[in-house]
Amino acid sequence: MTKDELANGFKELASNDVDGALALATGIFVGLVEACLAMNGEDPKREITIESGRQRDITLHEAE
pLDDT tens across 12-60, in order? Predict the structure, then answer.
């Protein structure tokens, strides 16, 4: 699958199922962050804050 095919598929999903597209994007993002932390020997299950400068910060924590 090419990058364009993936992008087009995601756009189609988002146009038909916004909640599903957001859940998919969020799951991919959280999985990537946790994998990066684990590869660097850090605990991926701890609370994680991503400071984004002028944009909104993001905090990841275990679901309650």
Answer: 999 999 999 999 999 999 999 999 999 999 999 899 999 988 889 999 9
pTM of the shown model: 0.78
Q: How far is the C-alpha of 43 from the C-alpha of 25, rounded, in Å?
A: 22
Handedness of CA 21, 55, 5, 38 (dihedral sign): negative
Q: Nearest to residue 50, comparing CAs of 32, 31, 33, 26?
A: 33
CB 17 within 8 A of CB 24: no
Tell me how many helices (H) and strands (E) the chain has: 2, 2
3-state secondary structure 3-24: HHHHHHHHHHHHHHCHHHHHHH
